[in-house]
Amino acid sequence: MKELIETIVKPLVDFPEDVLVNVAEESDRITYKLNVNKSDMGKVIGKQGRVAKAIRTVVYAAGSTQQKKVFLEIVE
């Protein structure tokens, strides 16, 4: 899943080397925390959050096979 997020986000940003995905796993959920360069934040979020919503939709669909709930946070 971490590789999927990186594959989606890296082509969108100007600084792909700054893309970092951290995983926090709890008993009933898995949270992926996406960090990007501050200047790329707008590209990842998109107008009215459309790009972020699309990324979350793909990640949630891919994570639906797991027993735990999947969340994606975009961290500044």
TrEMBL record:
It holds the Pfam family KH_KhpA-B. One of its GO terms (biological process) is regulation of cell shape. GO terms for molecular function: RNA binding. It is found in: Cytoplasm. One of its GO terms (cellular component) is cytoplasm. CDD domains: KH-II_YlqC-like. Keywords: Cell shape, Cell wall biogenesis/degradation, Chaperone, Cytoplasm, RNA-binding. InterPro entries: KH_dom-like_a/b, KH_sf_prok-type, KhpA. The keyword Cell wall biogenesis/degradation applies. Forms a complex with KhpB. Belongs to the KhpA RNA-binding protein family. A probable RNA chaperone. Forms a complex with KhpB which binds to cellular RNA and controls its expression. Plays a role in peptidoglycan (PG) homeostasis and cell length regulation. This is RNA-binding protein KhpA. The gene is khpA.
